[in-house]
Design goal:
The protein has about 170 residues and is mostly helical. The protein has five helices and no strands. Helix 4 (about 85-115) packs antiparallel against helix 5. It is elongated.
Length: about 170
């Protein structure tokens, strides 16, 4: 099971890197075409928009599984060590609830976009599948947040490094 999770992580990381490289190449070609030849790539904005969503929402479950979201210890001193376990459980439940709510909202939005045939402006790319992909990303992130709360972060020792304090 754990080997499958790591293989899935590597696959998603590869897809993210390829989407990011495609975005860079497309933007570079679009700028060169626009500046040198007066001919931008038609629909580059639509493609970049979709690729950006893929990069961001492929990464969301990975960041969640690694426990790498930005955290603020604003209330930690007020709560005290005695109640810290309860505080962490409460925040984990809140995070999972919010991620599930966002998944549900994007499922509704994706189904509505498919029903009304919502498309991008230039290339008329359908938006429904993209919204449903975002919903799946939020759902996987909720699952990852649940697993994170129960077992701890999914971190590769080769991917981490010690940071100097500020």
């Amino acid at each position: 099971m754990l080997a499958t999770a790591w293989a899935l992580r590597r696959t998603v990381e590869t897809v993210m890197a390829l989407c990011l490289m495609a975005m860079v190449a497309l933007t570079f070609a679009d700028v060169i075409g626009r500046r040198l030849f007066g001919a931008p790539i038609y629909g580059a904005h639509d493609i970049t928009e979709h690729l950006m969503a893929l990069v961001v929402f492929c990464g969301l479950p990975l960041v969640t599984a690694a426990g790498a979201h930005l955290t603020i210890d604003l209330f930690d001193r007020l709560i005290g060590q005695r109640w810290m376990g309860w505080w962490r459980a409460l925040t984990a439940i809140l995070v999972v609830g919010i991620l599930c709510l966002l998944a549900w909202l994007f499922i509704r939005h994706g189904l509505n976009a498919a029903r009304i045939s919502e498309v991008s402006q230039a290339l008329r790319l359908p938006r429904g599948p993209l919204y449903l992909f975002i919903a799946a990303s939020f759902a996987l992130s909720a699952l990852a947040a649940t697993i994170l709360a129960l077992t701890g972060p999914m971190v590769d020792a080769d991917d981490t490094h010690e940071e100097d304090p500020l």
